[in-house]
Structures are given as C-alpha cells and as structure tokens.
Amino acid sequence: MSTKHEKILQYIESLPVGDKISVRQIAKDMQVSEGTAYRAIKEAENRSLVSSIERVGTIRIEKKKKENIERLTFAEIVNIVDGQVLGGMSGLHKTLTKFVIGAMQLEDMMRYTEAGNLLIVGNRFKAHEYALKAGAAVLITGGFDTTEENKRLADELELPIISSSYDSFTVATMINRAIYDQLIKKDILLIEDIYVPIEETAMLKNNQLIEDFHKLNTLTSHGAFPVVTASNNKLIGMITVKDVIGKDPKEQIDKVMTKHPISTSMKTSVASAGHRMIWEGIDLLPIVDDEGVLQGVISRQDVLKALQHAQRQPQHGETIDDIVKKEIKLLGEDDLMVEFTVTPQMTNQFGAISYGAFTTLLSEAGSLALKRRKRGDAVAENLTIYFIKPIQMESVLTVVPHILDMSRKFVKMDFDVFNEQVLVGKAMMMFQLLER
C-alpha cells in the first residue's frame, strides 16, 4: 500500500511533460495538506521530475536517464544564468542539444544554429527571429529585451526566449560548468544504480514467526533479512542468524529482531554506503524512501564489486580528487615515497595549496603505500596536521609515508612532506582497511 507521499510523486510523474504545477493545485487534486504537497514537490525536484523557476513556477520536465544526465533543459538554463523568461514559457521543459555563441555575421550564425540548440546572442532582433524559425531557443545576454513579434513567435513555437544580465562569455562558462558538474554526477555510483529492488528482496513481516526465518534462510542461504510491517512494507527491523539462536520457533519475529536498523536512501553514493557498512560491521543494508518504506537492499559484496568495476571505467568529469591523483608520481619500486606537483586548481585564495588538496594528497599517498605492502584498499578515517607551511603553486613536493602501527583492520601512518629537501608539512592519518 502506497503512502500519501508516494501517491503524490506517482501523480506528478503521470502529468504531461511541460505542465505547470503548484503546491495548492497538488494539495487540492490529491486531497492532502499543502505541507505534504510541498514536501512531495521538493522530492520530485530532487528526482529531476520537475524544475522550479523564480517568477515562473514549477514545471514538469522529462526525467533524465543517467546516460543523458548532462543534457540540460531550458528550465535549468534559466536557473543557471539567473535568467528571465520573455516568451515561449511552454517550451521550458525541452532539452537542448548544444549551445551556439552568436559572435559572427547573421548568415554564418544561422549555419551553425539548428533545432534543439540554444543561441546565445546580444540584442540582435533578426538573429532572435531566425533562430526561433530554425527551431532553436534564444538566450539574450546583457539584460536586453527582444521585440513583441519575437515574443509572440516564441509562444507560438514553444521555444523559450531567456534574458540574462551576464555577458556571453560568462553565461557560456556557467552553462559549461553546469554540464561538467552533471558529468561528475554521472561518474558517481549511487545506490539506485546497483541495489536489489524490493520485488527481488527476501524479507519477513513483523507478524511472522522464527520458524519462517528458518524456512527463508534454508531457501535463500542468506543470514540476514529486513523486517517490514505487514500493511505497508515500512522497515522496522533487521533479523539475523545470531538473533534466532536458541529461540522458540513459534516466537514472533518482532520480539527478537534488531529495532531501528541502519538504513540508507537511493541517492546515497555506493562509496559512502560501503564505508558505513564496514564501519558498522553489517553485511546487508536496507534501502528506504523518505517515509521509511523499504525499496530494496544492498550487500557488502554488491558494493565491493561495484567499486572495483567503477575504478576501471573512464571518467567524464574531473573532481579535485581526480586532478590531485593525476599529479602523483611514484618514486622507485621499493620506496613508499611519491612526487607531486601543485597546480593552480589546487590552491586557495592566497595561491598556496588548499587544505582539501593537501588532505587528498596524503590520503592517496597513504593508500598507494598500503597497496605496495599488499594490504589492499583502505579508507582514511581521521587526519591530524601537525603543521603545514604555505606551499606555492608549481611547487614539486615529495611525500614520505611512515607506517607507525598496523593491525588487521587499522593502519596508523605518519607523513613528511618536503619541497626542495625542506620539510614543509607533517601529518598523521588513520586508515581503515577494507575487507575483501
């Protein structure tokens, strides 16, 4: 049985793409409070089902698949460039294929402008008209307006005309940055990419007996199961083999299960979920929605397989971590030392290496040292920086890790950082080893 929240989301998803929706309208149509409607619309926005635009409202947009996540809708463009919609509002849900900067003669401009494009141009009214007739939307820079005829044409063709106070170079940079951010998101594995859905999940109801656990255990050979309410599949516990040892088979499950179990959501990254599972010592993690209803499960094996697979995939968008890792060079086969060059992207406002880049450098150097010792993958747990001198861009650093203490699960490591044989930084880091 679906909750009110789920029903509203299903209703929003059933609306035609391009429809304008409001909290009041959803509350009236679904006979719920405005607060409930507002929360559902916000969740729909997180799921990329709708886009909210200042002075326009909330518009139902087509949900983007992960493989096309970098393609932006015109509604998203309005928000990215702090724009104002002058016409063609009913086409805001459409997706653009590419953008063209109109810094050329009109005839040349039109040669590059096709249906589905976004023409970025100043107050050149003829260019606005020709672009619309070619099937492209228009982004007017410098805060300029367009003619009433062009606005009517935009409404008729359902192609947005957007005005932004920024110049052409700035809006192109902002749009590029947004696409780049989407590419980074595309690279990040989320729980929703690898989880086992509820239809395929072995689970037990709270009113079942321990003998039902034994039957399911024999059937699936799994040692742990989520426990849900009989009425609406709301997660209320987890039950494992340890919980039922020596218990009466006729005893009800909810008497022996672990209540308030650790769970996570679809939008959690696989890396974060895996780290939590290892830290908490659990092999099965339930996935729930905002209302606590079970959506599926993920196992530790699923996480490790997914992370190993992700490491072999080409990256589309680079994060600061990727940039730092590219600059690390191993020194020799036996030594644990690494060499590192500080690039401008890694600096703070003073032109010195940022704490974020410095932390990533030490974490990566430590991980490489552990791999050389054949200790597998590790996650940095905590860091203590004893001191760090201002390290200028283009400095070449040598990082020397020293393993102070190593157990089956943890490693304590000390780092000396040199620039031209001068000690410029010293830190200590604790790593947790990932079990295979």
Automatic annotation (TrEMBL):
Residue span, CBS domain: 257-319
Keywords, ordered alphabetically: CBS domain
Lineage, uppermost ranks: Bacteria, Bacillati, Bacillota, Bacilli, Bacillales
Matching InterPro entries: CBS_dom, CBS_dom_sf, Diverse_CBS-Domain, DRTGG, HotDog_dom_sf, Ser_kin/Pase_Hpr-like_N_sf, Thioestr_dom, WH-like_DNA-bd_sf
CDD domains xrefs: CBS_pair_DRTGG_assoc, hot_dog
SUPFAM superfamilies given in the database record: CBS-domain pair, HprK N-terminal domain-like, Thioesterase/thiol ester dehydrase-isomerase, Winged helix' DNA-binding domain
Stated name of the protein: CBS domain-containing protein
PROSITE patterns: CBS (PS51371)
